[in-house]
Amino acid sequence: MYRKVFKRLFDLIGSLILLPIVLLIILIFGMLIYLEDKGSPFYFAKRRGKDGSIFKMIKLRSMYVDSPDLRNADNSTYNSPNDPRITKIGKFIRKTSIDEIPQILNVLKGDMSFIGPRPITVNRPLSEYDEKRKIRLLVKPGITGYSQAYFRNSISQEKKLKYDAEYAQNVTFIGDLKILFKTIQTILFRNNVYIDETQVKGVREIEK
């Protein structure tokens, strides 16, 4: 019952309550982003949602306009404290996760949930998905999830996918509450903001 009914109800109520704050944050940081390099304050990323459907995930832009899309060998997003693609305001909104806040609009729309596996990229066709990638698609992607809350960028992409698949098979109200509180703790203490580079090998650019 929680997974099929109440989870969506909580998402809808929560996103409506937070909407005024979200719009204020977007206004303030959107202006700061624009003033730095005169580009759009938003970044729209194509992601796979529940059952493999494709949607546009909304983020506040943290990189300079037309920055290359760099990926680690395991297809996870390249993430480094010295990344030259990141703007000055971008460094701050990434550390504080403010760049993720517009995704509450995705939650309101129904593309995402507050809690769930982080949205996966569309670079790989569904026909090439292994079992854990398929299992993740049984639930809506989330603004935060088990891997994001407990590990953020400190483990490899494959480990994240494994933990997220386990979450998708065991969605509970208590489990979601634990993830929510752990996420708050992780953000406040800025834990695991950058990926452990010993977990990945090589960096490549994705063609747009």
Q: How many independent structural domains?
A: 1
Helix content: 40-55%
Note the overall shape: globular
Strand order of the largest sheet: 2-1-5
Number of helices: 7
Strands, helices and their partners?
Elements (H helix, E strand, L loop, with lengths): L1 H36 L4 E7 L5 E7 L8 E4 L15 H8 L7 H7 L3 E3 L4 E2 L9 H6 L5 E3 L1 H5 L6 H13 L3 H16 L14 E4 L2
What does this protein structure show overall?
The chain is α+β, with helices and mostly antiparallel strands and 208 residues long. The protein has one domain. The chain is built from seven helices and seven strands. A hairpin with a 5-residue loop joins strand 1 and strand 2. Helix 1 runs antiparallel to helix 3. The model has no long low-confidence stretch (mean pLDDT 88).
Please give a quick description of this structure.
This protein has seven helices and seven strands. The protein is of the alpha+beta class.
Summarize this structure as a short list of keywords or feature phrases.
alpha+beta; 208 residues; 14% strand; three-stranded antiparallel β-sheet
